[in-house]
Specification:
By secondary structure, this protein is α/β, with parallel strands linked by helices. Helix content is 33%, strand content 25%. β18 (362-369) and β19 form a beta hairpin. α1 (22-31) runs parallel beside α2, α4 packs across α7 and α9 packs across α13.
Length: 403
């Protein structure tokens, strides 16, 4: 099987002597089914020609931030949307520092900021530069943001030194790119994901809701598809862009979400409930706007159906994964929810902390299952989703073999 089949790989080539190896890397990615587009820095052009990389990739090599031939003359946005994975190879010490700081003054670094695709960094530099503490610190920061690093290797360098700093071989980089997707771990399975909030209307203009951007659910839907699953996404109201290749059912209320789940759950092997479904709804919703007055307004709330517990109680229930957003006693409350709802796994996080949870692009999770727990460290929600999908795939295999 071609490991990167139908995957779009954007290669950013920076100014290292090791850039002469990049045509071979392009060729190897194409051999295993990927498509490659190349972006070069001005320094990289001193070591390998754009013509060579265009010939092996089949695409025009790009280097200009604003390209009149690109979509809206904004090449960094066009390529950021195109890429399923970004590979910075070779990555110089200077470019690693640029990515760490968040500069966007060349096409490659702007793409890295504008894209949600996973980023793989393949360092190449003099052995003394590699051992400088600043390089290691910069890479640790990038890894904490969800980027991956492969290499460097050790050996004779162009400057005559011997030691760590050599760009790893092309086949090693290709394997590392493939690992970004864990392609096939959910192949042949159907995954249903719920995401976003629900709205329970008081009147035509007011509603009760839960705080949720939908980002974690959308990231999980994307990660499950990357892992080879057929994905059905049931989403409450969000401002997020639709996900290509994923069947999406848009709903508003908890009742609509329940109906969408019930209508599609029979074919699902895995159900991941990230949606922040409102626990209660008004017993009666006014047909016209309730006018402001001076009297106290009393409103009776009734509980909504627990969609996750309802799915878990099905006779032939799928592998069920719940989410718990807590403000305190994370382990206690998550374990109680796991048991009470009789689900197979629960991913819990503390909300209200700076930089994680609601609306943030980063998050961290503690995942619980029967007699097991695993902490997934803070990282981008997309990378976190990939880590959770790996764990779900492992637990699903045990679940399926026991039935």
């Amino acid at each position: 099987m071609k490991r990167l089949e139908q995957k779009n790989c954007l290669l950013i080539v920076t100014g290292s002597i090791a850039a002469y190896k990049t045509p071979e890397l392009v060729r190897r990615i194409i051999e295993v089914g990927g498509s490659v587009r190349v972006v070069m820095t001005s320094s990289a052009e001193q070591f390998v020609t754009a013509l060579t990389l265009q010939a092996v990739s089949g695409f025009e090599v790009r280097s200009d931030m604003f390209d009149v031939k690109a979509e809206a003359a904004m090449g960094h946005i066009e390529l950021a949307r195109w890429a399923d994975a970004i590979v910075v190879s070779p990555a110089t010490a200077d470019y690693i520092a640029k990515l760490r700081i968040g500069h966007a003054n060349d096409l490659g670094s702007a793409i890295c900021l504008a894209s949600e695709a996973p980023v793989l960094i393949a360092p190449a530099m003099n052995q003394k530069m590699w051992t400088d503490p600043s390089v290691g610190e910069n890479l640790e920061v990038l890894k904490s943001r969800g980027m991956s690093v492969i290499g460097p290797g050790s050996g004779l360098q162009a400057c005559g030194d011997i030691g760590l700093g050599r760009l790893v071989e092309a086949e090693v980089i290709v394997s590392a790119v493939s690992a970004l997707f864990e392609r096939g771990i959910l192949a042949g399975l159907e995954v249903m994901v719920t995401a976003g909030p629900t709205r329970e209307y008081i009147d035509p203009v007011r509603y009760i809701t839960n705080h949720s951007s939908g980002k974690m659910g959308f990231a999980l839907a994307r990660a499950a598809r990357e892992a080879g699953a057929r994905v059905v996404l049931v989403s409450g109201p969000t401002t997020l862009d639709p996900l290509p290749g994923i069947k999406t059912i848009n709903v508003v209320s908890s009742g609509e979400m329940r109906d969408a789940v019930s209508s599609n759950i029979k074919s699902a092997d895995i159900f991941i409930a990230t949606a922040a479904v409102a626990d209660y709804r008004p017993e009666k919703s006014a047909l016209s706007k309730v006018k402001r007055g001076t009297d106290v307004l009393n409103m009776r709330l009734v509980p909504n159906v627990d969609i996750l517990a309802e799915v878990a109680a099905l006779n032939d229930a799928p592998f069920t994964v719940g989410f718990a957003a807590e403000t305190e006693k994370l382990e206690l409350f998550a374990a109680e929810k796991l048991k009470r709802k009789k689900i197979d796994m629960i991913a819990a996080n503390l909300v209200g902390e700076p930089g994680t949870g609601f609306d943030s692009d980063d998050n961290e999770l503690t995942v619980f299952w029967d007699k097991g727990v695993k902490k997934l460290e803070r990282q981008s929600k997309q990378q976190l989703a990939r880590e959770l999908v790996k764990l779900v795939a492992i637990r699903y295999d045990l679940f399926a073999s026991s039935r």
